[in-house]
Write a structure and sequence with these properties.
The protein has 356 residues and is of the alpha/beta class. It folds into 2 domains: 199 residues, Isopropylmalate Dehydrogenase (3-Layer(aba) Sandwich); 135 residues, Isopropylmalate Dehydrogenase. Helices cover 40% and strands 20% of the residues. The protein has 12 helices and 14 strands. A 10-stranded mixed beta sheet has the order 2-1-3-12-11-4-5-10-8-9, with helices on both faces. Strand 1, helix 1 and strand 2 form a beta-alpha-beta unit. The chain is globular. The mean pLDDT is 94.
Length: 356
């Protein structure tokens, strides 16, 4: 008897539905071959939710998430909803969902595939072999700090972290490092920010419980430079919300395409797994989007949420095989492509490879 899992599906806006469909195709293939039973529950969030319910995050979705083992999410937003007030825009639904789920840890790998080393804007000898995991604190810091205010002649936000918030994200990073190369670089701005010195002191304390892991520290401005200068020096990068937001986007471009990279938001309960790219409304419905980041997100879901390591490995290997065989979506067509695939065709190829 196979294991049973309930997966929440939030397709979202723009290209969200089409890339999620390809991830489900791959999940169905791996399930059939590995004896898993996946039950999908589709829920609304973002612009699609606004159009149907008037709000970006319906209560039904909040409650539905709690009944699932993991959530697979596409993308939200688009020009259609840009004129709405900030608190009812699609993006506010995602922030609220992460908060309600207690997903305080954002995991964003930046991997450069050998077959696409020339896709990066950096020299191949700089990026070849890059494999970085950015662990970003997701529900604290300046994005959520109180007080905050917008006045006529000034505006301010406050950057706040509690000891508990820093400890729990640090533990996530150290546990991940133990499964990798056992190196963590904690990124802060401790030379000018009290909250960053507080962050650094607590990370040092947590490190005492993981003596096998090498801990270093770097100021965020230097870290941004080093990601471009010598990215292979990093294994796990641990950092706060705003710094992680910026650095993970910078790291994502080492691969040459934002369409390749997945992410996971985990924490107290159900995790949220999503590609790092946006909804790309300009190409939605044309069948040319790249589903690999979403398929990789499904792999991360299997690995981190469900503990199905072998299934995750098979998806990762299938992606590498497809790339090694020269299959490319249009965004990667200039890089050693032997065949340009549609979004659906790429999904078919990965699904076929995971079944072998």
């Amino acid at each position: 008897m196979g294991k049973n899992y309930k997966i929440g599906i939030i397709k979202g806006d723009g290209i969200g539905p089409e890339i999620i469909d390809e991830a489900i195709k791959v999940l169905d293939s791996i399930s059939a071959n590995m004896g898993l039973n996946l039950e999908y529950k589709e829920m609304l969030m973002g612009g699609a939710a606004i159009d149907e319910t008037g709000v970006p995050l319906p209560d039904e979705t909040i409650q539905g998430v709690k009944t699932c083992d993991a959530i697979l999410f596409g993308a939200i937003g688009g020009p259609k909803w840009d004129g709405l007030e900030r608190h009812i825009r699609p993006e506010s639904g995602l922030l609220a969902l992460r908060k309600s789920m207690g997903t305080f840890a954002n995991l964003r790998p930046a991997i450069v595939y050998d077959e696409l080393v020339n896709a990066s804007t950096l020299k191949s000898n700089i990026v070849k072999g890059v494999d970085i995991m950015v662990v970003r604190e997701l529900t604290g810091g300046i994005y959520f700090g109180q007080p905050r205010e917008l006045l006529e002649d000034r505006a301010y936000n406050t950057m706040i972290y509690t000891k508990e918030e820093v400890e729990r994200i640090a533990k996530v990073a150290f546990k991940i490092a133990m499964k990798r190369d056992k190196r963590i670089c904690s990124v802060d701005k401790a030379n000018v920010l009290e909250v960053s010195q507080f962050w650094r002191d607590i990370v040092i304390e947590v490190a005492k419980d993981y003596p096998e892991v090498e801990l270093t520290h770097m100021y965020v401005d230097n870290a941004a430079m080093q990601l471009i200068r010598n990215p292979k020096q990093f294994d796990v990068i641990l950092t706060g919300n705003i710094f992680g937001d910026i650095l993970s986007d910078a790291a994502s471009m080492l691969s040459g395409s934002i369409g390749l990279l997945p992410s996971a938001s985990t924490g107290k309960g159900v995790g949220l797994y999503e590609p790092i790219h946006g909804s790309a409304p300009d190409i939605a419905g044309q069948g040319i989007s790249n589903p690999l980041a979403t398929i990789s997100s499904a792999s991360m879901m299997l690995r981190y949420a469900l503990g199905e390591e072998e299934c995750a490995d098979r998806i990762d290997d299938a992606i590498k095989k497809a790339l090694s065989q020269g299959y490319r979506t249009g965004d990667l067509g200039a890089y050693d492509a032997k065949e340009i695939c549609s979004c659906s065709e790429m999904g078919d190829i990965i699904a076929r490879y995971v079944s072998k």
